[in-house]
Amino acid sequence: MRLVIVTGMSGAGKSTALKMLEDMGYFCVDNLPVPLIPKFAELLAVPGTEMNKAALGVDIRSGQSFQELANVLKVLDEGGCQYEILYLESSDDVLVKRYKETRRFHPLAGSDGRVEDGLKRERELLGFLKKKADYLVDTSHMLTRELKAELNKIFVQNKEYKNLYITVLSFGFKYGIPNDADLVFDVRFLPNPYYIEELRPMSGNDQPVRDYVMNNDTAKQFLTKLTDMVEFLIPNYISEGKTQLVIGIGCTGGKHRSVTLANELYEALKKTDSYGVRIEHRDIGKDAITKAK
After folding, report:
1. Is there a binding annotation on residue 51?
2. Counting Cβ atoms within 10 Å, is residue 107 exposed (0-12), middle (13-18) or buried (19+)?
3. Rg of the chain, C-alpha, whole Å
4. Which residues, 6+ apart, have CB-to-CB distance to 74 below 8 Å?
5. Quick check: 293 pLDDT over 50?
């Protein structure tokens, strides 16, 4: 029997995660009253039951009974019940944006309806669950398919999960440094394909641009040293409990050199299952848009 408690911040993707787990063969129950959780666990443990995999969605919507969760989990621990906690996290900026897009009110926002206040209160209430979580997934930069891939890795393939998700992000300095970048690298010292007429309309996703940028020792040495440093940092970030790492690689316009190096770093990092990794090109099409205006 495998019991997964799905929890975390409102707007971080709990409902989506439960639907994904259901598609993966888990019997899913959302917002089960907290006092009934031990009884549900007992039913799962009955020999011969058809439910051998279950997921429970638990969050602050449970109201006053949510405060009993710590004691309920203690009862499960003392009774020898095996369970795992999946905690979905996201940054306040992303959560506020999601709430504004859906025009929903945060359950703890209070009479003035300020989402920020609700999020602050929610983080206080969920603090003990976050510390107790077996899997901490930050969905701030995740696409739906990327979240599904991570859950599949944990709950279907049973691969080791290190609670770190890396975003390799290319950008253009003339459009500003990404506010959420943890590490920023400037590759404007490399030869610029923009000044080659036939390469100008292309991007770092095109092979001719990639060949032009990488066809020199400086670019190759930089990539080797950058990859080596990032691979050194990753286990140290993991040991410190970091769950989201955004690596920004910038050039002037975010179309040629930064895209090329971001792609190369992404290819080097994605060879392991020890953490999740994704690629994003923030400004790759902005030059064309700007010129059209």
Report:
1. no
2. middle
3. 22
4. none
5. no
- 180 labeled part of a ligand binding site: no
Is the pTM here over 0.85, yes or no?
no
Residue 8 counted as an annotated binding residue: yes
Strand 135-138 relative to strand 84-89, pairing: parallel
3-state DSSP helix/strand/coil % of the chain, to nearest 5: 45, 20, 35
170 is annotated as contributing to ligand binding: no
61 or 156, higher pLDDT: 156
Task: Give Cα 128 distance to the centre of its chain.
Answer: 20
| Phi, psi of 33, deg, nearest 5 | -50, 130
Residue found by looking up tokens 């992303």 in the block: 94
Contact predicate 245/180, CB 8 Å: no
111 is in an annotated binding site: no
Residues of the chain with CATH 3.40.50.300: 2-155
- Is 61 flagged in the annotation as binding? yes
Residue 103 assigned to a binding site: no
CATH topology of domain 2-155: Rossmann fold (3.40.50)
Q: Is 41 annotated as belonging to a binding site?
A: no
Above 60 in pLDDT, residue 121? yes
